[in-house]
Each structure stands twice: as C-alpha cells, then as structure tokens.
Amino acid sequence: MKGTLSPPGNFAGQAGKCPKERLVIKGGHRLEGTVRTSGAKNAALPILAATLLSESTCEILNVPLLEDIRFFISLLHELGTDTSASFENRVSAVTVDASSISGYEAPHELVRLIRASILVLGPLIARIGRARVSMPGGCAIGNRPINLHLKGLELMGAEYEVSNGFVDIRTKGLGGARIYLDFPSVTCTENLLMAAVLARGTTVIENAAREPEIVDLAKMLKNMGARISGEGSDTLKIEGVRYLGGTRWSIIPDRIEAGTYIMAAGAAGGTLEITDTVPSHLDSAISKLRAAGMKIDCSGDSIFVESSGRLKSVDVITQPYPGFPTDLQAQFMVLMCLAQGLSVITENIFENRFMHVAELKRLGADIKIEGRSAIIRGVKKFTGAPVQATDLRASACLVLAGLAARGVTEITDIHHLDRGYENMEAKLAALGADIKRINA
Ligand code: UD1
C-alpha cells in the first residue's frame, strides 16, 4: 500500500469513515499459515507525541496504518509541526519536524476521536510551557479520568485550570519532583516521563507502569538525548536535560495484535506462525493459553501456535503488565465461552469492560456478570448472528467469535476495529478465513 495521510485540519469527518461498513464472516474454517505482526499502536502514539520534544527532525518507522494514527498525525499538524507519512509495502514511516511548533491546543473534535490525544500534555508543557487539551470524557469501557496526569504535572510545577471542557495547563518552568502514582496508569506514566525529560533537576516516578510500550518510549527518548533509568521497573528516574535532538526509531511489534492472532487460532482451530513479535511480551497470556490446552512454541521473533479440539476452562484476572492484559480480555473470553467447564474472568483495570458479553450471548454464550467478574459456562458451539462492535477490543473478540461460529456472523460498527488492527480481514483471509468487508 502506498500513500500519504490526510492534510492538516481534515480530520473531523474521518470517524468511522463509512459507518455502514460491516464484516461478514462464515465460520468454521481452520486457520493455516503465517501472519506478520504490525507495529504497536500503543507505542506509536506516545512516540509520535514525544517528537514534539525535539528541536530536530524525528523519523519513526514501523508505524501501523490505523485510524488512531491518522487522527494523531492530524493533531501533530494542528500543533504546527511539519509532519509527513508514507506507507509503502511493509515500510511505514512518519517524519515529524517540531522545531517550530506554533500551537498548544488539542481541540475537542480530535480528543473526541482519539482519547490518546492526552499524550500531548506532557511534551507541550515541557517544550513550550503551555497546553490546552479538551478533557477526554468517559468511553464505552469506563470513566477514564486524568487526575493522576494532572497531579503529577502539578508536583513538577505546572498550574492548571479546568473550564469549558478544557484543561489549560501552564508553567514558567518545570522542576524535578518525586511522584507516587496511586495506580500504575500507562498514559500517565508516559506523560510524566515526557514532561520530566526537559524539566530542571531529577524526577522520580514511583509505582510507574511497566508496559513494553513505555520501555520503547524511554529508549527512544534516550536516543534523543534524555537521561532516564529504570524503564521496565516500577521506579523511573529522569534527570532533565536542556535539549533533545532528533532520532530514527522503529516501533516495537504490537503484542496485543499478536495475542489476538494466537487466540484466533484457539477459536477457529489451526496452525499458525506469527512473525515479527517479541514473545516475552506475551508471557502471561501464553501461559494461560497453554494451560487452556493450546500448543505454543516461541523461537526468535516467531510464535508457533497449534490448536485443535476443545480447550479447557481457565480463570483469568487482568492486571497491569506483566499481568494478563485487559486489552486481551475480550478475545480470551471467546475461548472460554467455547471451552470445557466453568471459568471466571475478572476485569481489574476498567470498570465497564464487558460490553462484548451481551453480543457473545447472541451467538449462544452462557455468561453471567457479577461485579467485576464474568462467570462463563463453556458451550459446545456458537451460532452465527448479527452483532454490534462497541469498542476496539470488543470488535476483535466478535471477529474471533465469528470465526468459531457455525453459519454467518455479521459485525456492524467496525470503525472501532479499524482504530487498532491493521488489515485484520486481509490478514485473516490470507490464513483461510471466510471474511469480507461489505460496504452498504
Ligand atoms: C492504556 C492503553 C489501553 C489499555 C490501558 C490499560 C494506550 C494509548 N492505551 O490506556 O489500550 O487498555 O492502558 O493497559 O496506551 N486512571 C485514573 N486516573 C488517571 C489515569 C488512569 O483513575 O489519571 C485509571 C483508569 O480509569 C483505569 C486505570 O487507571 O481504570 C488504568 O488506566 P490507564 O493505565 O491510564 O489506561 P490508559 O493509559 O488510558
């Protein structure tokens, strides 16, 4: 695929490019073959935000071609950067020159489309001393406040005001601080890290999130000249520097996408090689899937998966990394719905991340919700039905359910899927799935 992304200011009409598009899946086909993992969305977003810290050009490689990335690039344009993107075959590059950023505002139209717009808060306050960002509201999976981001920046010397739906944050100069996070929030850790790299003095972030995407961001910042230690642990130490240079940085593979394809083989049955991964990033998920009866071997950057017959029920609790990821909870639920026995899936990160349950029930699943837990009695089969995607990972879960179901499953509102999965239907079709995007 070749092309450039939309010009500045042309973002508002892009949400759900074609709201009537839907996926039609005829289930019952085993998956066979090799699938390549794309670059990680959740690493690409903070890394694109971090280019705002640099006074030279940054070139970011292995950027996945996703709706969320398009929106974020629109935001970088809005802020006055010179940004260009090209997506050709397997090489995708975004070049950002933020040497003369002129804006400091993330408008509502964009924050509404992509919550991760909040990631410009840290870089903007560090680089130009001001940021005005539309307050992200709740979303389908929970309230998702940003109190920890604001508290951390305040401890570093910023002042903020929330009015008319915006947070306006200013500083005459950030200083180092000792910050304890009440919860190891991923984007909060990233925002504070990006603010601290240009602050005067030393910042220590305790109870920091440890996700591989944060490690990728920290390494990229170090490559630009930042002084950071402790990435991947729960304590980050940052010594502020006066200036950050450019970089050429390649994004890590998307562990959630790779995990989704492993589970696709678990749902439909099959034999897959998933390439371009970092298998250790999926340790917790792989150990649960092995316990459920899937055969999974890792060698170099490939994961080999074999699955046939019925899986066994296994309980799962979602936790911050290195625990079982909330972003794979919905997909794992599909496997448990069809497994032998009773399982309990407990969602510990978001308060409302069971929107897919009602849709899975339409296919024949037996699930009861009790508080933060889903109690699942495995059934022998799903039967295809029309279902509606409600959020990004719920969409992937419904695709997996459709692959496993007898008959035809039709999924509407698939713009959610396009936010986070690159060419999912093409990748699955190449593995033998009967899946088509219908535009009507
Ligand atoms: C990131 C990921 C998302 C993933 C999530 C958890 C990106 C772009 N998104 O989202 O895919 O599902 O991590 O792994 O990387 N919280 C507060 N106050 C705050 C911040 C967070 O109460 O200031 C709460 C949230 O409401 C939620 C929990 O902390 O209940 C975890 O959220 P967080 O880690 O912040 O998720 P995100 O960074 O938004």
Molecular structure report:
By secondary structure, the protein is an alpha/beta fold. The chain contains 14 helices and 24 strands. Strands 22-23-1-24 form a four-stranded mixed β-sheet, with helices on one face. Strands 2-15-17-16 form a four-stranded mixed β-sheet. Helix 12 links the parallel strand 22 and strand 23. Helix 1 packs parallel to helix 2, helix 8 packs parallel to helix 10 and helix 11 packs parallel to helix 12. The chain is globular, with a radius of gyration of 21 Å. Uridine-diphosphate-N-acetylglucosamine (UD1) binds next to helix 1, helix 5 and helix 6. Uridine-diphosphate-N-acetylglucosamine binds next to helix 1, helix 5 and helix 6.
Layout: helices, strands, pairs:
Layout: E1 21-26, E2 31-36, H1 41-50, E3 57-61, H2 67-78, E4 82-88, E5 91-97, E6 105-106, H3 108-113, H4 121-128, E7 130-134, H5 147-155, E8 159-163, E9 166-170, E10 178-180, H6 186-196, E11 202-206, H7 212-223, E12 227-229, E13 235-239, E14 247-250, H8 255-268, E15 270-275, H9 283-291, E16 295-299, E17 302-307, E18 316-317, H10 329-337, E19 342-346, H11 355-362, E20 366-370, E21 373-377, E22 386-388, H12 392-404, E23 408-412, H13 415-418, H14 424-430, E24 434-439
Parallel strand pairs: 2-15, 3-14, 6-7, 10-11, 18-19, 22-23
Antiparallel strand pairs: 1-23, 1-24, 3-5, 4-5, 7-9, 8-9, 11-13, 12-13, 15-17, 16-17, 19-21, 20-21
Helix pairs in contact: 1-2, 1-7, 4-6, 5-6, 6-7, 8-10, 8-12, 10-12, 11-12
The structure holds uridine-diphosphate-N-acetylglucosamine.
